[in-house]
TrEMBL record:
Residue ranges, annotated region (Disordered): 1-58
Keywords assigned by UniProt, alphabetized: FAD, Flavoprotein, Mitochondrion, Oxidoreductase, Transit peptide
Protein name as it appears in the record: D-lactate dehydrogenase (cytochrome)
InterPro entries: FAD-bd_oxidored_4_C (IPR004113), FAD-bd_PCMH (IPR016166), FAD-bd_PCMH-like_sf (IPR036318), FAD-bd_PCMH_sub2 (IPR016169), FAD-linked_Oxase-like_C (IPR016164), Oxid_FAD_bind_N (IPR006094), Vanillyl_alc_oxidase_C-sub2 (IPR016171)
Domain of life, source organism: Eukaryota
Pfam families listed in its UniProt record: FAD-oxidase_C, FAD_binding_4
Catalytically driven reaction(s): (R)-lactate + 2 Fe(III)-[cytochrome c] = 2 Fe(II)-[cytochrome c] + pyruvate + 2 H(+)
């Protein structure tokens, strides 16, 4: 889609042709039953007393798929055009200047140690002692996601644990006053460096790591000294459910709660609803909003973009806005909720979110193997094109199935490229969809289906799918894994899968993959033990991105851009679109304090 933004006839590309889901993170790749290395299990998720409008409801079986994609696209185009026009009036001048981050960020100031110390002193007068940490262990634990494959970028200087919106307001006002960078953080399971602090030439303690990076050497956490940024960790004290509106299929939550905890609470209260976006166990709502996360349920229930109604956001000057009401639809201006979803913490800090819930319906899970990866990918494409009512269509290659078998889990699978499918609906609807699926599988040379007979079997089968990352890590002792994703239109998915598998084989790498095949979202997990293997792995990533973009897809379907994929963004969106994104950033965050160096390059950082 294109939108004409100015009389100068500059045209920007608002997105690639819809490729399933277009934005961040899978935010987490934890596994059920296994704690994240940086998790703080001693801090329970507090569930306050809240009012539910009812405890039981009857819902139509097919009500769960309520999409607003077309409306969202129109509203975003309108919003972008309006903001662009207003910003253009404010920043008239030679257009070539805006393409240069340095020239277009004259209000940005590099933080200094003196300003940092003064700001911390004021913070200590505002916040109780336990809400602020300068301890190195805390800084290290929140400096780098254990799942990110790239080197750590820098240490923050302080960790803050706000209790609610007012604490965030106080923190942001001080950061803005002293030009202190702020990094919003929830689960800290980012894959593309969204939560990494930057280093600055003005900070003497950063000099050694900057020099080492300049020589092309690897950076470790031991190389880093406390920096000048604040991490605002919402997972400690902002992890509550505020209210359930089950008659309206909505829930209001804080950003530090995980989607697992939301669904556990609904089940405990016998409310027959669930929140459908499922990146992986452990993902928290704040990060899921920041990345526009999705997961296995996106085929039927959509991404975060389709499942968030309203946000409470603290802006850079400390002001607080609500992006819209709880109404399911509104034509009262552009939908600002969509502006913040996928913005990766660069425009503001979300402190509350109103989410969409969907009815719990009967489910059945099935698995089928195929002789080749092309056969499996073609079957996934046909299931989508022929409108079979599946909730999930997951593709695992033969290497991934082999690793899952080696990991164990109670079920041993035939080591072939396989589709893991989840059916959802009434028993009659499931029976009809199963028969249609069997025919499509047979047409594409698939083997006989293994079906779950009850909920426990379905859970065990799906557990195999969810344990993929751990299976890869354990398969090669001492290895690390580059986890990356791209997304293409579903019709192009078979071509992407076949070419990427051939590339991994040519490079001699261990690189299984799994995919949300229903919407063209492809994940590669590239194992490496030496620096040379890591370089080859990133070569595979670069070619995979180029291949996806050539197929009218995107460099990331759900992991987000962060620092890891900034270099691919202009080729996908064009310099005009990047310029508009930068100007929106300047309008909302003129000093550039929110998560600098992520999504687009900005400000005086190294």
């Amino acid at each position: 889609m294109q939108a004409i933004l100015r009389p100068s006839s500059r045209v920007v590309k608002t997105s690639s042709r819809r490729a399933g889901q277009v934005r961040w993170a899978s935010n987490s790749h934890n596994n059920a039953g296994r704690a994240h290395p940086l998790a703080r299990p001693s801090i329970p998720i507090r569930r306050p007393t809240f009012t539910s409008t009812t405890t039981t409801s009857t819902f139509a079986a097919r009500n769960s798929k309520q999409r607003v994609t077309a409306l969202t696209t129109v509203l975003l185009a309108t919003l972008t055009g309006a903001l662009s026009y207003l910003i253009g009036l404010k920043t008239q001048g030679p257009t070539d200047q805006s393409a240069d981050p340095a020239s277009s960020s004259s209000s940005y100031k590099e933080p200094t140690r003196r300003a940092f110390d003064a700001a911390v002193k004021e913070l200590q007068a505002l916040l109780p002692e336990h809400l602020l940490s300068l301890d190195r262990d805390s800084l290290v634990a929140r400096s780098h996601s254990d799942w990110a494959s790239h080197d750590p970028s820098g240490l923050p200087g302080a960790i803050l644990f706000p209790r609610g919106t007012q604490d965030v307001v106080n923190i942001v006002k001080l950061a803005n006053k002293y030009s202190i960078p702020i990094i919003p953080m929830a689960a800290n399971t980012s894959l593309e460096g969204h939560t990494g602090a930057l280093t600055y030439k003005s900070n003497p303690s950063d000099a050694a790591s900057i020099a080492k990076r300049g020589r092309g050497e690897c950076i470790t956490l031991d190389d880093l000294e406390p920096g000048l940024a604040w991490v605002v960790d919402v997972s400690e004290n902002m992890n509550e459910i505020i209210k359930i509106h089950d008659h309206d299929l909505q829930i209001v939550v804080q950003p530090g709660i995980s989607y697992d905890a939301i669904n556990e609470t609904l089940a405990e209260k016998n409310i027959p609803l669930f929140f459908p976006v499922d990146p992986a166990p452990g993902a928290m709502i704040g990060g899921m909003i920041g990345t526009g996360a999705s997961g296995t349920n996106a085929v039927r229930h959509g991404t975060m973009r389709e499942n968030v109604y309203n946000l409470t956001v603290v802006l850079a000057d400390g002001s607080v806005i609500k992006t819209r009401s709880r109404a399911k639809k509104s034509s009262a201006g552009p939908n600002l909720t969509q502006l913040f979803i996928g913005s990766e913490g660069t425009l503001g800090i979300v402190t509350e979110a109103t989410l969409r819930l969907v009815p719990k319906l009967p489910q059945r899970v099935g698995v089928s193997g195929f002789p080749t990866i092309e056969d499996a990918a073609n079957a996934a494409r046909d299931l989508v094109q022929q409108g079979v009512g599946l909730a999930c269509i997951e593709l695992l290659d033969d290497v991934m199935v082999k690793m899952i078998n080696a990991k164990g889990g109670g079920i041993t699978w035939e080591e072939k490229p396989s589709l893991f499918l989840k059916f959802e609906g009434t028993q009659a609807q499931i029976a009809e969809d199963v028969e249609r699926t069997k025919k499509i599988v047979r047409t594409n040379n698939g083997s006989k289906f293994t079906f779950s007979r009850n909920d426990k079997e379905a859970e065990n089968i799906w557990y195999s799918r969810k344990m993929g990352l751990y299976a890869v890590i354990d398969y090669v002792p001492g290895s690390k894994v580059i986890v990356t994703d791209v997304c293409v239109p579903p019709s192009q998915f078979p071509a992407l899968v076949a070419a990427t598998k051939a590339d991994i084989s040519t490079q001699g790498l261990i690189g299984p993959f799994l995919s949300h095949a229903g919407d063209g979202n492809f994940h590669a997990l590239l194992s490496w033990t030496t620096q040379e293997e890591k370089v080859r792995g990133y070569g595979v990533v670069a070619r995979m991105v180029e291949r996806a973009q050539a197929l009218d897809g995107t460099c990331t379907g759900e992991h987000g851009v962060g620092m890891g994929k900034i270099k691919y963004l202009e080729a996908e969106l064009g310099s005009g679109t990047i310029d508009i994104m930068r100007k929106i950033k300047h309008l909302l965050d003129p000093k550039g304090i929110f998560n600098p160096g992520k999504l687009i390059k900005e400000g005086p950082c190294c």
